[in-house]
Amino acid sequence: MKNQDISENQAKIVYLGIGSNLGVRRENIEKAKFQLKENNLRIISVSKYYETPSWPNANYPKYLNIILKIKCHQDPLDLLNICKKIEINLGRKNAKKNSPRICDIDIIDFHGMKLSIKRKLNLPHKRMHKRNFVLIPLFDIDKDWKHPSKKLDIKTFISMLPVGDITSIKQV
């Protein structure tokens, strides 16, 4: 029998953001959660649902967003491929950046890993610490979370958000 590195088999804690601003938004997110489970990803906790104006174009439909805390055995690129496949399964089309979408799944934090693969994946997510629709739902499920690179806690990041970002997000 071949000896394996024990850490290879250990599940990693990952935070995913799921958003939708087209169709039946809550249903789209629930379908995404179901498909994540079908891909052997174990959901540990789910934030409340939050609604925010679209960015950068507030004339687009509002987004509904959640954050998931999951356990996975995949590496970051395999997880990214699963997320992209789910987005396509739910009807996401190639469109210009920041356009409305049925489903958007982002890897926010992959087990505290720091990784940059040009035009493909940045861990932790490059702009997550500036986004109300990531920080506030993430605070729901992990009040002690710290940014892997910046080493600041989530409360600090929330306190740094502009007032408009705090007042424009609402729990639904």
Count of spatially separate domains: 1
Beta-strand segment tally: 8
What is the CATH third-level topology name? Alpha-Beta Plaits
* Largest sheet, strands/sense/barrel: 6 strands, antiparallel
Q: What is the overall pLDDT average?
A: 92
The fraction of residues in strands falls at: 15-25%
Tell me the Rg in angstroms: 16 Å
Q: Element order, helices and strands? A: HEHEEEHEEEHHHE
- Shape, principal axes of CA atoms: globular
Which CATH class? Answer: Alpha Beta
What are the low-pLDDT stretches, counting only 5+ consecutive residues below 50?
Answer: 1-7
Please count the helical segments.
Answer: 6
Structure description:
The protein has one domain (about 5-170): 7,8-Dihydro-6-hydroxymethylpterin-pyrophosphokinase HPPK (Alpha-Beta Plaits), CATH 3.30.70.560. The strands form two sheets. Strands 1, 2, 3, 4, 5 and 8 form a six-stranded antiparallel sheet that branches. A two-stranded antiparallel sheet has the order 6-7. By secondary structure, the chain is α+β, with helices and mostly antiparallel strands. The model is unreliable at about 1-5 (pLDDT under 50). Helix 4 (about 130-140) runs antiparallel to helix 5 (about 155-160). A hairpin with a 3-residue loop joins strand 6 (about 115) and strand 7. Helices cover about 30% and strands about 25% of the residues.
Task: State the gist of this model.
With 172 residues, the protein is an alpha+beta fold. It is built from 6 helices and 8 strands, in the order H-E-H-E-E-E-H-E-E-E-H-H-H-E.
